[in-house]
From TrEMBL:
This is Electron transfer flavoprotein subunit alpha. It comes from Thauera phenylacetica B4P. InterPro entries: ETF_a/FixB, Rossmann-like_a/b/a_fold. It comes from the Bacteria. PANTHER family: ELECTRON TRANSFER FLAVOPROTEIN ALPHA, ELECTRON TRANSFER FLAVOPROTEIN SUBUNIT ALPHA, MITOCHONDRIAL. One of its GO terms (biological process) is fatty acid beta-oxidation using acyl-CoA dehydrogenase. GO terms for molecular function: electron transfer activity; flavin adenine dinucleotide binding.
Length: 67
């Protein structure tokens, strides 16, 4: 199984008015029918999305106390 995911917060935003990126032609192989989109599933959670957080505070055994 091959899977590709892209998180929108994984890349810095481009600066306004920055130079255009070069366009390159890439030869793509024809779809031989060996792949299929089985489905898309968006997971909803009551917990905040860590990728969108500006600050993440974490603790554990290394802190040696609950304070």
């Amino acid at each position: 199984i091959k899977l590709i995911t892209v998180r929108t917060t994984a890349f810095d935003a481009a600066e306004a008015g920055s130079n255009a990126a070069p366009v390159e032609a890439v030869a793509a192989a024809a779809d031989l029918g060996v792949t299929a989109l089985v489905g898309r599933e968006i997971v909803k959670s009551a917990r905040p999305e860590l990728g969108a957080a500006k600050v993440i505070v974490s603790g554990g055994r290394g802190l040696a106390s609950g304070d």
